Amino acid sequence: MISIPSTFKISFRALRVNKMRSALTMLGIIIGVGAVITMLAVGTGASERISKQIASVGSNLIIVLPGSTTSGGIRTGFGSQPTLTKDDADAIEKECPAVAAVAPNLNGTAQVVFGNQNWSTAVYGTTPSFLEVRDWPLFSGRNFTDQDIRSATKVCLLGQTVVDNLFGSMDPVGQIIRIKKLPFMVIGVLERKGQSPVGQDQDDVIFIPVTTAQKKIFGTAFPGMVRTIMVKAKSTKDLDAAEQQIIALLRQRHHIGPKADNDFSTRNLTQMMQVAEQSTRVMTILLGAIASVSLLVGGIGIMNIMLVSVTERTREIGIRMAVGAKTMDIRLQFIIEALSLSLVGGLAGIIVGISGSKLLSMLAGWSTIVSPLSVLLAFGFSGLVGIFFGFYPAYKASLLNPIDALHYE
Amino acid sequence: MAIIETQNLNKIYALGETGVHALVDVSVSIEKGEFVAIMGPSGSGKSTFMNVIGCLDMPTSGQYFLEGVDIGKLNRDELAEIRNRKIGFVFQGFNLLPRTSALENVELPMLYNGTPSSERRSQALAALRALGLEGREHHHPNQLSGGQQQRVAIARALVNRAPLILADEPTGNLDTKTSIEIMELLVRLNDESGITILLVTHEPDIATYSKRIIRFLDGKIISNNPVKKT
């Protein structure tokens, strides 16, 4: 039996004889592998971005919104009625076993001033557990304390965008800023979080104790009212249980009869994000599948050229058979020739794919991620294509009658 | 023991309604070390006979023993192995691989019997040197003269130390002077190394280099006589 290295040597020589033809045949595989890698990079980049955004919102998050109420036959929209209170939030934290942390929110927009700088930003009244709920670490300074909540102190945490606009490069911790003309001491700065899934700057924000917001900034008609409650479930598995527990608890607390609609609603953000992530994964697979069609077409090109090659080299096959080449020797020679075409094409395709992804992220601004798995997958697939489409020509060559092959003109 | 022994070989090609009876009850015995010329007009069955003897074709009926091995019982790959180890082919058209050096052409048979690459090289070099092709090892066939090409082909036939050489019109494409050189080379191989040679030719001059002449006509052997040396 012929040795594999010798066969590779023979194959490379045969491919060198027809340089142009080999190059064009490889081009099909190069484009195929390049397209698969690029498309997978685009898809992976998109889903990576979404999972990052999910993480930036906070994982295992449920948002409770005040609901619509019907008064005099007119239904108002979600959030139009002040039905949620800080007490609701405290109750959820205490009574729902699937819940890890709860942060009520009362937010609005306010003008903030420091020195001769001023800036309009979102002000959120919340509790110390907010940072845990949103998985948002402090950059410097300290968090609120329960004492701050109880006594409605005028302290605040700043997002990075606010820091950039009011303080520039100066350290804001310990400084006094004015929110709606009231003085607040900056006790901490939050880490930069970047854009939200819908493109909002999450760092353009100031946090103050919820009680301070209720009493001093947004002074509400309903005592203790909050706009939303953010709840973090203990784990992804607990999400559904937590949601059910919250609904049951709030229905009870709001005295809602068995047939009446909820006067609040819950949104499971993580679930929504996961759906989005799943859809990008489907998109990735779809892109990859479309790209692999071109790989398949490249394979057909290989088969085509190999068939031509077998016919052209009938006499060579006859000579090899006469001096003792067995069926497998001939078959192996042509399969390895096809494999060499597809593997060399595959290697070049990897380079094309990686630079293509880089180019796309540079020119179009898409985030692309070339995963080693996708490279391996595309390369392996190109090898399989070579073997698969090389097999028939090789099989045909191996079945030639040695006498006919020897006398072939 | 006879190196070649055939009994009632028949070969019928299915062609048209009747078929062509290319070999009719050919029984022949050739001893080790013989130099036999096969003669006959075209269509006489001599090529078919050579193909069967060369294990490239199977007889329709009858038996063929090569060094006592019943060839009719072997499959395709076993026949390839017999060709590799026992038979060296020399063709009219040389049948060297194009765009491949003389050295690699001679290495070819050893490629298919697992000879390690360094040994392949040294044996092929030795075979080429023995045939006076020193310095031509890296020439491609199209850079060699007809006589040189045929000598490369003979080197290829010899390199596995096959006991039998089948030469199908080896001088058909060569001029007289070169033909004589090649024939003298074959005679020398036969005399010195005891290699059995079967030579197909239609030139009486060439046939006289052999020791025995077998004549074919219409698929039958019509004469089988030793050559009278003058």
Characterise the protein shown here.
The complex is a heterodimer of chains A (409) and B (230). With 409 residues, chain A is an alpha+beta fold. Helix content of chain A is 55%, strand content 18%. In chain A, the strands form two sheets. A six-stranded mixed β-barrel of chain A has the order 4-5-10-7-9-8. In chain A, α2 runs antiparallel to α12. The longest helix of chain A is centred in the last third of the chain and has 44 residues. The two termini of chain A are 28 Å apart. The model of chain A has no long low-confidence stretch (mean pLDDT 87). Chain B has 230 residues and is of the alpha/beta class. In chain B, the strands form two sheets. In chain B, strands 6-7-8-3-9-10 form a six-stranded mixed beta sheet, with helices on both faces. In chain B, α3 packs across α4 and α5 runs parallel beside α6. The two termini of chain B are 29 Å apart. The model of chain B has no long low-confidence stretch (mean pLDDT 92). The interface between A and B is medium-sized, with 24 and 28 residues.
Record keyword descriptors for this entry.
heterodimer; A: 409 residues; alpha+beta; 6-stranded mixed β-barrel; B: alpha/beta; 6-stranded mixed β-sheet; globular
